[in-house]
């Protein structure tokens, strides 16, 4: 990769490798050294966006979930979206009722292992596969029952299509959660979906705001503001607090991109957005891609032979996007199971403190923009919808960061040398023998989350002072720049021979003539006299 290569070059190269034409729904995401996630911006240099040293680790995934995934033109696109939603299901981002969960898992089974065969699939075969963060025997029996009796004869493409149609109806379809806290200090997850802005708390959807009701989004530090205009000219401001300023900026940029993609009719309507009302302060950002309507119109014009799809079965493989959706590693050779488990665990450790994927531990609400009363009225105006049988907690199974192949063997040796369990079964046995381990790890996690807030107080104050100083410097620079422009205009008016209509009208006004003869000419003579005195003094010395 050349040093000046743009993100668009890398993305196009990847889509060409995948033989993907409907590529506007996808993006590349990476994690910086501070564990904050970012989308790769296609208009900027790849190397300049990376704060780490090469080789860079990035993830190709769905960025804008299709409003109707079943309406996608090509099967290769539907398959990639299927893999993404299947991953969302496993990592707890896509929640649903138990009955819906069983049907979705059965579709996955049918798509990836085919029809039920008593010779190949003994009793309890569905328990060998893990589709969700948590399983129960009752759910596994229900999955097997649907797979046996209702889905026989469906091809992989048909099962994937039915899976997409069912997933698209769920409340958490397309949710990429951002952990925050509201003005009352309650934990919440904010997300942008194809249909609007969503706030999730517990197992309920407490807010759903359509894109045409969102009038503005902005952020200041850790605080995110959402301005809403509903029916009868009712205006609401929702305020939430992100764990870090970087996480809040990432949330704001994701909101700007999603609103532009789903709401606008043409990409020519996209405007540069500022996070502040003052043009010399805050961040500026502009969505650079096409909008959903243009993407659908372009997809309708695709005319080519359907590309061949190499589907991956439910067998863990580091080259397959479904590595974490595979069986519980019982049908894989032991050495391979160890390698796969270690890659997952290392990825979990690298993202455990990610500002994008872990719950917020603490936030200051003293400077809340919206009063609690206003927030309460907003909440009461929304219909609370129960989205699942369990609480929405995607942090329980974080998306692992891919691990470089050349480091896999080193990690395996280090884990064995430390006596760490090398498979999920061994991990469970180890934890069963030490009941205090879970409590100790939980306490350690709380301590790691709380210590930065207590020990970094001075750093936070210094950061606020630095931001204030930068803001004052910006104001001074803008003021000096305006004065310089006015001085240049004054010199042009008084000293130049330009005889345009604009200058002629100004020069003929009585006010300008009075200023010119009573103030400017004496000032010019005084200044010229001083300059001559300084020059003569320099010559004499």
Automatic annotation (TrEMBL):
<dbReference type="GO" id="GO:0005856">
    <property type="term" value="C:cytoskeleton"/>
</dbReference>
<dbReference type="InterPro" id="IPR014847">
    <property type="entry name" value="FA"/>
</dbReference>
<keyword id="KW-1133">Transmembrane helix</keyword>
<dbReference type="InterPro" id="IPR019748">
    <property type="entry name" value="FERM_central"/>
</dbReference>
<dbReference type="InterPro" id="IPR014352">
    <property type="entry name" value="FERM/acyl-CoA-bd_prot_sf"/>
</dbReference>
<keyword id="KW-0812">Transmembrane</keyword>
<dbReference type="InterPro" id="IPR029071">
    <property type="entry name" value="Ubiquitin-like_domsf"/>
</dbReference>
<dbReference type="Pfam" id="PF00373">
    <property type="entry name" value="FERM_M"/>
</dbReference>
<comment type="function">
    <text>May be involved in regulation of cell migration. May regulate cell-matrix interactions via its interaction with ITGB5 and modifying ITGB5 cytoplasmic tail interactions such as with FERMT2 and TLN1. May regulate ROCK1 kinase activity possibly involved in regulation of actin stress fiber formation.</text>
</comment>
<feature type="transmembrane region" description="Helical">
    <location>
        <begin position="472"/>
        <end position="494"/>
    </location>
</feature>
<dbReference type="GO" id="GO:0005912">
    <property type="term" value="C:adherens junction"/>
</dbReference>
<keyword id="KW-0965">Cell junction</keyword>
<dbReference type="InterPro" id="IPR019747">
    <property type="entry name" value="FERM_CS"/>
</dbReference>
<dbReference type="Pfam" id="PF08736">
    <property type="entry name" value="FA"/>
</dbReference>
<dbReference type="GO" id="GO:0031032">
    <property type="term" value="P:actomyosin structure organization"/>
</dbReference>
<dbReference type="InterPro" id="IPR011993">
    <property type="entry name" value="PH-like_dom_sf"/>
</dbReference>
<dbReference type="InterPro" id="IPR000299">
    <property type="entry name" value="FERM_domain"/>
</dbReference>
<dbReference type="InterPro" id="IPR018979">
    <property type="entry name" value="FERM_N"/>
</dbReference>
<dbReference type="Pfam" id="PF09380">
    <property type="entry name" value="FERM_C"/>
</dbReference>
<keyword id="KW-0472">Membrane</keyword>
<dbReference type="InterPro" id="IPR018980">
    <property type="entry name" value="FERM_PH-like_C"/>
</dbReference>
<dbReference type="InterPro" id="IPR019749">
    <property type="entry name" value="Band_41_domain"/>
</dbReference>
<keyword id="KW-0597">Phosphoprotein</keyword>
<dbReference type="InterPro" id="IPR035963">
    <property type="entry name" value="FERM_2"/>
</dbReference>
<protein>
    <recommendedName>
        <fullName>FERM domain-containing protein 5</fullName>
    </recommendedName>
</protein>
<dbReference type="Pfam" id="PF09379">
    <property type="entry name" value="FERM_N"/>
</dbReference>
<feature type="domain" description="FERM">
    <location>
        <begin position="1"/>
        <end position="266"/>
    </location>
</feature>
């Amino acid at each position: 990769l050349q040093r000046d290569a743009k993100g668009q070059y890398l993305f196009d190269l990847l889509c060409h490798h995948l033989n993907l034409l409907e590529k506007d729904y996808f993006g590349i995401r990476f994690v910086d050294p501070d564990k904050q996630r970012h989308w790769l911006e296609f208009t900027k240099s790849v190397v300049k966006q990376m704060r780490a040293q090469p080789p860079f680790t990035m993830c190709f995934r769905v960025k804008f979930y299709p409003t109707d995934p079943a309406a996608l033109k090509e099967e290769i696109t539907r398959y990639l979206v299927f893999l993404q939603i299947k991953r969302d299901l496993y990592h707890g981002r896509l929640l649903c009722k138990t009955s819906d969960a069983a049907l979705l898992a059965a579709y996955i089974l049918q798509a990836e292992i085919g029809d039920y065969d008593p010779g190949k699939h003994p009793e309890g075969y569905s328990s060998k596969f893990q589709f969700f963060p948590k399983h129960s025997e009752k759910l596994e029996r229900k999955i097997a029952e649907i797979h046996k009796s209702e889905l026989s004869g469906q091809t992989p493409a048909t099962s994937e299509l039915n899976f997409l149609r069912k997933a698209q109806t769920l409340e958490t379809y397309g949710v990429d959660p951002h952990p925050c806290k509201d003005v009352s200090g309650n934990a919440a997850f904010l997300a942008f979906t194809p249909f609007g802005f969503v706030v999730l708390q517990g197992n309920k959807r407490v807010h759903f705001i359509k894109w045409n009701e969102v009038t503005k989004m902005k952020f200041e530090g850790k605080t995110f503001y959402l301005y809403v205009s509903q029916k009868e000219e009712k205006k609401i401001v929702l305020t939430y607090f992100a764990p870090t300023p970087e996480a809040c900026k990432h949330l704001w940029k994701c909101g700007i991109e999603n609103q532009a993609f789903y709401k606008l009719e043409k990409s020519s309507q996209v405007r540069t957005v500022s996070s502040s009302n003052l043009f010399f302060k805050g961040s500026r950002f502009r969505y650079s891609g096409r909008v959903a309507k243009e993407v659908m119109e372009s997809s309708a014009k695709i005319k080519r032979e359907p590309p061949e799809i190499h589907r991956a079965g439910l067998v863990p493989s580091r080259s397959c996007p479904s590595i974490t959706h595979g069986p519980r590693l019982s049908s894989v050779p032991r050495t391979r199971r160890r390698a796969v488990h270690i890659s997952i665990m290392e990825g979990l450790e690298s993202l455990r403190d990610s500002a994008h994927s872990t719950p917020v531990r603490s936030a200051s609400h003293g400077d809340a923009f919206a009063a609690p009363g206003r927030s309460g009225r907003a909440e009461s105006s929304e219909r609370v919808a129960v989205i699942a049988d369990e609480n929405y907690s995607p942090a329980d199974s974080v998306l692992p960061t891919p691990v470089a192949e050349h480091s896999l063997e080193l990690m395996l040796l280090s884990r064995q040398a430390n006596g760490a369990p090398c498979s999920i079964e061994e991990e469970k046995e180890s934890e069963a023998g030490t009941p205090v381990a879970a409590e100790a790890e939980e306490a350690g996690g709380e301590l790691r989350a709380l210590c930065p807030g207590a020990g970094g107080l001075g750093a936070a104050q210094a950061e606020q002072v630095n931001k204030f100083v930068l803001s004052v410097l910006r104001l001074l620079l803008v003021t000096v720049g305006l004065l310089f422009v006015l001085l240049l205009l004054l010199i042009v008016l008084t000293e130049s021979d330009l005889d345009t209509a604009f200058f002629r009208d100004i020069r003929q006004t009585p006010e300008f003539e009075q200023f010119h003869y009573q103030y400017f000419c004496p000032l010019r003579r005084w200044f010229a006299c001083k300059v001559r005195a300084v020059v003569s003094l320099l010559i004499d010395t």
